[in-house]
Every structure is written in structure tokens, then in C-alpha cells.
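Quick one, T. Sequence first:
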Amino acid sequence: IRAYLDGTAFRAPIVVPFIHPVVKNWEKPITVARHAYGDMYKAVDMVTDEPGTATLTFKGESGAEKTLTVQTVKGPAVWQGQHNTEKSIRAFAKSCFQYAMANKQDLWFSTKDTISKVYDGEFKRIFEEEYENNYKEKFAELGITYFYTLIDDAVARVIRSFIWALKNYDGDVMSDMISTAFGSLAMMTSVLVSPDGVTEYEAAHGTVTRHYYKHLKGEETSTNPMATIFAWTGALRKRGQLDGLADLAAFADKLEAACFTTLNQGTMTKDLAGLVDEGFETHPVTSAQFIAAIRQNLEAAL
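C-alpha cells:
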């Protein structure tokens, strides 16, 4: 779905006051903007078992060809070829700039163009081109900045709130790091935004296989549903905005508020109970009990 929509996944942690991030400067969420197409997720690879030479050849529709020698090896080797498209990279850049303006937040973009001079260099070039031609004046009016740096430099400087644009694999890894540093993988929201306005909401984390097997045995689990709930509230709010349904958007707001009320009451799943500040009383519950508590608070608000 991500590849088909050719959008950018914006992932931000859900912040609660009684859980402080590992980095004390992080008072506001850091949003990771993950390019959702190409790189190793669309790569092809193979293993060879003899000496030889690998080449990379592009055959254009015009009949023209370009060939590069990848490497000559003296024995078994493993190979991988990955790609991206100018169209997708430009869509990625536009989504990031538009999202930054909508949220009035600084935008950083980082790659490793000193090593990957052509591949990562193309990402850098397109971002700079879009910024200079279409967004520089708008950013200045809003008082926000666009900043490019090498990815290792960005990692060393991640100490403040901003939007961090990253290639597909980098975004996958760094969004998990950000979510864990803020508290829990289960507290990471994700919305895919394409330049034409199409949006798709999901939880940023994967599945909890260990909990699922317990569920199949009839055992109770304490799986945190917050990110999944916020995927629904985000989608319902967007649907309400698109269709002019104020009540639907208001319901989404009240459901999110009910989640925070439940957490502030100390009722939470076990992944959060071990992270709260000293002195904050918690009541660890199962997934079903947590959802029931949220429902009770929601019904009270309605």
C-alpha cells in the first residue's frame, strides 16, 4: 500500500507527562518522515559460487545502454541491486516540505552522500531543488528552517524537536529508536501522506508475536493498543474533515482524550508501567481491561 500510494510515512511518538524520554531535551515529539518506496525494499539480490565479474546495465527504451562494473571477485559472493525513481524522491520531498509547513516544524534531511555520491546525492539534489524553487520563501514566512546534513551527524545532533526526513531503510530503523527513547514502540503513530493529499493511517510498530501465541492458548496478554487506537482516531478525524462531519472529528478527539485520561489515572499496560516516573502510581492491566477503561472514560466524555 505504501509503495502504491508513493507517499511518506510520518511517525511520531505519543507523549505522556509521566514518562520522560531518555534524552531530557526531548520535550516535544520528534517526527520521522520515512520515504516509503524503493531502496532495499524493492531490491533484487543473488548469491554466486565462482570467480567472475558483476556488471550493472541499464537499457533505455531508445536503445541506448549504460554499463558499470560492480566488482570482480575471486570466489563466492553475494550481490544486491536497488533503485529509486526521480518521481518518487520528488514526491517524498514535497510531502516533507508540506508536512513541515502544516505543523510549523523545522525539517532536517540526512543521507550519506559523501559515500553514495550518485544514489544519495540524487536525494540531496532533489530536496535542495524543491526547497529553493518552491518552499524557501514559505519556510521563511513561517519562521521554520530546512537543514541538510550527513546521517551520522544528524544522529549525533538529535536533541531537539523537528521533522527528520530519511530514506526508506534509515527511516525504518530510526523511527524505532525514537519511539523507544520516548518510551515504547507501542506509542508510535504513523500516517502516510502523498503529495496529492491521500492519507493512510497505521501503527508504526510491528506485531507482538509472543503475545499472539499466548492469545491463541487462551491466555490474557497486556498488549498496548495505543498506536492502533490513534491510527483509527487519525483516520476518523481526517474522514470527518474531508466530509464536513464535525461530530466524527469530535469523536476522534474525545477518544484520544479518553486514552490520556486512562493513562493519567494510572491504568496502563505492562510495557508502560515499568517506564513511569518514580512516585506515579500505576495499575497494570490486561489489554481487554485497558480498552474497557478507555471505553468507560469515553462514555463519560460523551
